Amino acid sequence: MEKSLARYIWSNTRLQQLWILTVVAVSMIPYFLSFDLPKQIVNGPIQGSGFEGQGATQTFMRLVYTLPVIGEVEFFKGVQLDRLQMLMGLSLVFLALVVLNGLFKFYINTYKGRLGERMLRRIRFELIDRVLRFPPSHFKRVKSAEIATMIKDEVEPMGGFTGDAFVSPALLGGQALTALAFIIIQNFWLGMIAAAIVGVQAVVIPRMRKRLLELGRQRQLTARELSGRVGEIVDGIGTIHGNDTSNFERADIATRLGLIFSIRYDLYQWKFLVKFLNNFLAQVTPFLFYAIGGYLALQGRLDIGQLVAVISAYKDLPGPLKELIDWDQMRQDVQVKYQQVYEQFNVEPLIDGKIQEISAAAMGALSAPLVITNLTVSDDSGARLVDHVSVEIKPNETVAVVGPNSSGAEAFAEALGRLVWPDSGRVTIDGKDLLDLPESITGRRISYASADTYFFHGTLRDNLLYGLKHAPLREPQYDGKEALEAKWHAEEAVKAGNSTMDINSDWVDYQAAGATGPDDILTAIRPVLDAVLISQDILDLALRSTVNTSVHVVLADHIVDLRSALRQRMQETELGNIVVPFDFDAFNPQATVGENLLFGSMKRPMMNNRRLAAHPYFQALFRETGLSNDLYAMGLEIAENAVELFHDLPPDHPFFQQLTFMTADDIPTYQALLQKLQSRRFDDATPDERSAIIRLSFAYIEPRHRFGLLTDELMEKIVNARKQFHENIPEDLAAVIERYDPERFISSASLMDNVLFGRIAYQQADASDRIRAIMGDLFDKLDLFDDVLSIGLEFDVGSGGKRLTMVQRQKLNLARALLKRSDYFVFNRPMSALDQRVQDHITRNIVEGLHKEGERPAIIWVLSNAKLAEMFDRILLFDRGALAEAGNFPELSEQNGMFKELLS
């Protein structure tokens, strides 16, 4: 990295800086003329100088220049104007100069802003580029929040300074010198006074601001450390809660905030002291001008026009001077910030940029063996993790790596996956060092997976296909306005030194996964998901998701067939009456009272329970049908029963799992509410109290809660109210509520609800799991499984994949590695969160699945269960960083060595 910010800016914007400096130089001409014009207006047409006689005129706008060799040349003779006409003419010229100076400022500031934003974009891109090229060991010593804060916030002022780096001193200095020179021309002594004040401001103020710079640096460092500490709290929130250290963290944060407060308070004191002194000096000068200039005018040594011109010129002097001093402070400030960025990002050795060069071409298979020669790997403390290991792994060989924890097996696998760099020794393929090979080869032909997983915010599909996004293979098709915008963005990217690759291109290498394109990628994905036993999880995610009917048209069209097929399949088994279907003319006892009343699905977020309850039509219906009193009385009974049964139980008691309408925290609230509503009359309760009570009845299900509150009369009343609700439903409600229809897909309901079109009876313990299994078979038979799988793959995994369980993340991580169909697979204890039985099952699936149909990629697997080594061609046993034993399973299992101990 360039160590000096000024040199960095000049080297990247030299031509633009020269152009804008030229514009600044030209702008000084009308700027100077605007100072002299007020004197001409006052002395000429206003005071009458040159218009002494009756009808006297003067020449206006005569343009005469004396050129070398040629002599005097008259370009324009001018026009003769009387006193009033001259006043109007000079005033219009003054207005024109004001407009011209404003246009110059507008152009210069706009150009500076664009230049600064390009530089900000450039430096951010370069810093992130360097992060992508940091050596793996460096990431163990830095906090991600601090790096992100530096790139996002701390380089922000550098972009603004870029436009000002050379232009501001030229523009502001030129304006200040022009104004000062004009004052000196008018009167030497007034000019000297202005120059003296300017000198004091230029010397004293910057010296005082050194303290401000130091305080600003301290503020930046403490703020960055606070950001890193907050990031640690977020990442370690489980550890904090598990160890009751939240108050320790509060104390730490309070101390840091106190330090920041003291720094900022000191900063404010110095800042306003400097500002006070600067303003004082700026105001002293006009006093001297009025006093001394007025005295000279009274003495006749200075005319009124000159005094007005001097005061007018000085009015424009403090502004540029103050901004020039501010520029100098900003220069020093951003240089300090840049120095910090330089120290943080100037990491050696960086990964060579050529290793990460993009390549859209298909990579040939790695047919040479993987040769590990005298490999030594150490941790940050210098302890040897792998100690002089040499071994050769053939392209079609399966190798089990075993050993106790900290045996060196994990570090050995990390070296093969390029996650750690060797201290000595080499890992080579076909004589080429693994670290020197382009990532376009190692990232495609070598797959690595461990127990440490990370998923980017996005869908399951995005993360699953992430290992196939190496280069933009198909450019997006833009037309019209989009094409022009894309072209403009590409041109700006070039000017800012950014990559011109379009993120909207199709980056997925479908052929590498064994597909021809996006239409058949699921045929390649599904076997991989089956192998790692995650297909059922994704199916469950799909069943709980809503379906975009404009995308999944086939599935929506077959929903009626699915419903009938499910009913028929259940009739053929003992699950015949396990699902109670929705019937518009009947009350569904397995559904909540609210679901029975609504008989439809709300389109969220446009409509929810609270908004529906507040709707005038819904409230009027409640009053007309008398359901308000009925459901209020029912809610009181529910509250009394719940409080009586559960008020003595601890909050974590499993009985609370049955209370869908109330949590353990709600018990005291409803206990107090019941005491207040002793009269039990509907009219005595406030609207909020009625809502709290009626809400309980809405979530009530008789077969589940068994309070015996739903009479035949009340159920009939709810059904009649339902009919009345849908019969006269206003347009605004009809647009956000989809009525259940046995012949139609309900887009706002989940896929599970659409297929069931009813509710599962609560009496059956494992009914939900059994129905899911039946649905999976039906999706397969009707060729809809890929559509359903696609819905599940649209699930948003959240930040870092945290919406998935650890088991699901590790399975998905394995699936992502398998999908690349590499030549070498390195698995480093990738399933630590799974129980041993499932690990064994998945291991067998992967080894057998990869070695079928004539394909035999090399597999290097660090096993948690040594017994699984039986299915591998060769075994490498590590102990204390050294390769202790090597051979096949029959050989090592018969020897009385360490491997035999691991088997027992």
Molecular structure report:
This protein is an alpha+beta fold and 904 residues long. Among the domains are: 5-50 and 78-345, ABC transporter transmembrane region fold (Up-down Bundle), CATH 1.20.1560.10; 370-455 and 806-903, 3-Layer(aba) Sandwich (Rossmann fold); 519-582 and 740-803, no CATH class. Helices cover 57% and strands 11% of the residues. It has 34 helices and 20 strands. Strands 10-17-18-7-19-20 form a six-stranded mixed β-sheet, sandwiched between helices. A four-stranded antiparallel β-sheet has the order 6-5-8-9, covered by helices on one side. Strands 1-4 form a two-stranded antiparallel sheet. The chain is extended, with a radius of gyration of 40 Å. The model has no long low-confidence stretch (mean pLDDT 83). InterPro entries: ABC1_TM_dom, ABC1_TM_sf, ABC_transporter-like_ATP-bd, P-loop_NTPase, Type_1_exporter. Its main location: membrane. Pfam families: ABC_membrane, ABC_tran. This is ABC transport system ATP-binding protein.
- Name given to the CATH homologous superfamily of the domain at 5-50 and 78-345: ABC transporter type 1, transmembrane domain
General form: extended
N- to C-terminal separation? Answer: 56 Å
Mean pLDDT: 83
User: Which fold name is given in CATH as the topology of the domain at 5-50 and 78-345?
Assistant: ABC transporter transmembrane region fold
Number of helices: 34
- The total count of strands amounts to 20
What is the gyration radius calculated from CA atoms?
40 Å
Structural class: alpha+beta
Segments where pLDDT lies below 50 for 5+ residues?
none
The CATH class name of the domain at 5-50 and 78-345 reads Mainly Alpha
How much β-strand is present in the residues?
Answer: 5-15%
Judging by the overall fold, what is the CATH architecture of the domain at 5-50 and 78-345?
A: Up-down Bundle
Protein name: ABC transport system ATP-binding protein
GO cellular component, one term: plasma membrane
Transmembrane segments: 15-33, 87-108, 179-205, 276-298
Membrane topology: Multi-pass membrane protein
